[in-house]
Amino acid sequence: MSRRISFGALALVLCAVAFSPARADEASVRQALQGRFPHMTVESVTRAPFGGLYEVILDGEIVYTDEKAEYFFAGSIYDIRTLPPRNLTQENSGRLIVSALTAARDSAIRRTKGDGKRVLYTFEDPNCGYCKQLSRELASIDNVTIYTFLLPILSQDSVEKSRAVWCAENRAQAWEDLMLRATLPQGAKECATPIEKNRQLMRRFGIRGTPAIYLEDGRHIGGYLPAAQIEQALNSVRK
Length: 239
Known about the structure:
Layout lengths: L6 H6 L13 H11 L5 E6 L5 E6 L2 E6 L5 E2 L4 E2 L6 E2 H16 L5 E5 L4 E7 L4 H10 L5 E7 L5 H11 L4 H11 L13 H11 L6 E4 L4 E3 L4 H9 L4
Parallel strand pairs: 8-9
Antiparallel strand pairs: 1-2, 2-3, 3-4, 5-6, 7-9, 8-10, 10-11
């Protein structure tokens, strides 16, 4: 997201919002919070099934507010009726990430290996050394569909290489040629790229560097990882 909310910052905004009804509804909570934070986007407001709270998605991050929209806080809420306790906030956050990644698949380079049943998302810069190492690890993994979002954040050269790969006739082959064999596609035409959309995803997810790897269930499993650890993570996803 574009503005990561910290607990310190939240402590400063635990203040009353001009709001009169004794009991809020979702629309009025949205209106009150949007007025208080005009430069942020209140994406949704949903009554939570506990504690008289509302779950709010604010610039891609889950926060909670009371029924009068006077206070809000960020943090995890657990259902301790279950063993082990369920992190409800984390589950909902994972669903948000899954939804965003699925909707953005057209902005990624797709490579299918074997049956392609397992899914992996990566954010990579073509000049990133760890991204090149990751490409070598991914080459040994089968039965997976890999969606790679080009994220050229290191230099203008990264932007040019990303553009050349995206505009190539065979993007998947062009990406592997570049990352594994240091070969750029020849004669690539000019075309529109999804680079800015990918940067928006980067900001939404709070990505600070490349590579960044996400699983099909929305879990962020880190940056560069060896093939064995990626395999273990892929096999841990519940369908």
